[in-house]
Amino acid sequence: MVRAHCELVLHYQPVIDLHTGRAVGVEALARWQHPERGLLAPEQFIPVAESSGLVVPLGRWALTQACLDAVDFQGPAEGLTVAVNLSARHLTQPDVLDHVQDALSRSGLAAHRLILEVTESAVMEDEEAAATALSALSRLGVGIAIDDFGTGYSSLLYLRRYPITALKLDRAFVAGVSLSRDDEAICSSVVSLAHAVGATSIAEGVETADQYAALRDCGCQQAQGFLWSPAVPVADLSKVLLASSRIAIPALTHRTPPTSGGAERPRPRPPRGQPQPAPAGRLAACKEQCQSTVQRASDRTREHLPDPGNCTQSAGAY
Q1: What does the alpha-carbon distance between residue 106 and residue 124 come to, in Å, rounded to a whole number?
Q2: For each of the chain's 318 residues, which pLDDT tens digit applies?
Q3: Total domains in the fold of the chain
Q4: Which of 26, 66, 93, 150 is the most exposed place for a label (fewest CB within 10 A)?
């Protein structure tokens, strides 16, 4: 954990394998322990950090702290991957590779246990810089996940260009996956797209058993959300992982989700073992299906931040 004088802390949310019900990783999420307003979520201070130029040092601190914590994970958390968000500005820094290498070196964390999450907008903000950075990071051995997938650019060409290992379905679609034909079709399309490019599909914001069942039925591989646990301090992680493992796994119904137009579409099957890239024809079809489904659905439907430089890293303890 960080020293008491530092107001920045990391909390961790479990990422669950939807077919075994067991945790396979965690996502590190920054929190600001404000002396007057209490614990603040990222959306309450990250925009200010971006506009004030503090987002890069904050990201570097979070990256190193998450790696240090992950090395000390114990019990059911031992060996889990840890995902850390990388801002657009941090991604395009000339020394971003040095930042990641330094965090891995200082902590001793194996590269394959670190996943870097970037948004679609971050990738497209500076395509050349992003391509260079992501390729270098991939060669280092870390995973690359696209966060909030489906809410950014409509062009999906970057999925072929960048070494992406996971697509995260945005919570806006997950919220209605068990209720809305549009959202169900979008989630199924994104899952198919992830499988086609050899990436893991991860759903965000899962809160109900019905959502769990719908996502599992359409072949989504992993998920996170309040159904299992909110993000918690590292000291509470073992406890919530044990509790999350007791959440019932819904049976597959093998239903075929309809499109918003009423036509039926084959349900993508969950892959066996490591997903393999599909032929170009299937990838093109998945892209077209995903884009058209999203289009149909969319047609209807200076506060002072704590200085990360004042935070010193130390290993988390249980």
Answers
A1: 31
A2: 333 347 889 999 999 999 999 999 999 999 887 877 878 777 777 777 777 778 888 899 999 999 999 999 999 999 999 999 998 889 989 999 999 999 999 999 999 999 999 988 888 878 888 889 999 999 999 999 999 887 766 556 777 788 999 999 999 999 999 998 898 999 999 999 999 889 999 999 999 999 999 999 999 999 999 999 999 999 999 999 999 999 999 988 765 443 333 333 333 444 444 444 444 555 555 556 555 554 554 444 344 555 665 565 555 443
A3: 1
A4: 93
Residue 124 CA to chain centroid, in angstroms?
17
CATH number at residue 144: 3.20.20.450
Q: Give whole-number Cα distances, 242 to 1, 236, 246, in Å.
A: 22, 10, 7
CB-count burial class (<10 Å; 0-12, 13-18, 19+) for 295: exposed
The verdict on residue 140 lying in a domain is yes
Bridge-based pairing state of the strands 8-17 and 23-34 = antiparallel
Q: Per the domain annotation, does 318 fall within a domain?
A: no
Q: Whole-prediction pTM value?
A: 0.79
